[in-house]
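Sequence, please.
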């Protein structure tokens, strides 16, 4: 049985993962409308992954005797200055999600909720991969420069980690 504090913070994470899904979906749409099919594919895959993260939390809360709450999601931005600025936002957002997961981990330790702590370890590792992936994309954008966007767009899917590719295929 989930303690109320843990249930509440996990429900907060449902909202954050759902917002992440919408954010990456909005970014994918922007990329697609700007002729960046490869970037759009990467972001659509990322959005799908975030949806799966949200569902993991929903199912976990319900399985542990809590009540998952499906909230309304804040509307994400729909316009971006350029690809590099958009991926800076991706990294900033992933840093935020990492902080959020770490906050839940800290609470579970304080509450001695070792079941939820164990459940969260998958997310802790996932966030390492998410930040690494976003940073790698920013590094490639800086290396290639704005004049090499065609090649970047063509090759971006190769920058997804094997774990991310496997998860998106599920």
């Amino acid at each position: 049985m989930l303690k109320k504090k843990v249930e509440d913070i996990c429900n907060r994470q449902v909202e954050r993962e759902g917002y992440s899904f919408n954010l990456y979906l909005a970014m994918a749409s922007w990329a697609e409308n700007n002729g960046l099919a490869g970037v759009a594919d990467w972001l659509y895959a990322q959005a799908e992954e975030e949806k799966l993260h949200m569902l993991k939390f929903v199912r976990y809360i319900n399985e542990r005797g809590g009540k998952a709450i499906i909230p309304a999601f804040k509307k994400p931005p729909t316009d971006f200055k350029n690809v590099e600025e958009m991926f800076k936002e991706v990294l900033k957002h992933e840093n935020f999600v990492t902080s959020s997961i770490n906050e839940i981990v800290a609470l579970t330790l304080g509450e001695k909720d070792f079941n939820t702590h164990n459940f969260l370890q998958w997310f802790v590792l996932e966030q390492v991969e998410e930040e690494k992936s976003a940073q790698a994309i920013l590094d490639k954008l800086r290396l290639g420069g704005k004049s090499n966007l065609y090649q970047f767009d063509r090759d971006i899917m190769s920058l997804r980690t094997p774990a991310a590719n496997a998860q998106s295929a599920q």
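The chain has a mean pLDDT of 92.
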